[in-house]
Amino acid sequence: MFYTLFVTIIPPFSFSVSSALTISLIGAVIFYIMGFIMLNCFINKEYYSDKLIQQEFKCIINNEGIEQINTRNSKSKSFSTWDDFVSAQEYKDVFFLFVSRRNAVIIPKRFFYSNEDIKTFKAFINKYIIKSL
Q: Where are the transmembrane segments (predicted)?
């Protein structure tokens, strides 16, 4: 039904190949922009709805794993052994240590005092995490 209506309104082969490609490109750009906007809205909504991830933490990294301590409330602690992580990825400004496909401990590089600390951390990752950098 829709095809018949569409063909009646716009007869087949009335568009040139270049105009069809142009329309497709414009549609793809619109969907890309909409997806980007929706993703940003989702990320912002998740961040602002979760008060725990907005709090400041201190990380202690050693041979046993990573301990995160809430700087406001030192009783609030989280400890992850190196065995808890399934993979790790490094980006320009952060490290992602994945506990599962969609759950990760995110450690910004600005948390480290020096490039030597970052090298030491990378050595821990390469030593203890199977799918590492």
A: 20-43
* Residue carrying structure tokens 């700087």: 71
Distance CA 64, CA 86 (A): 15
Question: Within a 10 A sphere around the Cβ of 100, how many other Cβ atoms?
Answer: 10
Q: Mean pLDDT over all residues of the chain?
A: 82
User: Which residue shows structure tokens 């890309």?
Assistant: 32
pLDDT tens figures, 46-87: 878 877 777 788 888 999 999 988 887 767 788 899 999 999
CA separation for the pair 75, 78 (Å, rounded): 10
- Contacts with 125 (C-beta within 8 Å, 6 or more apart), sequence order: 88, 95, 97, 132, 133
| Cβ burial, residue 57 (10 Å; 0-12/13-18/19+) | middle
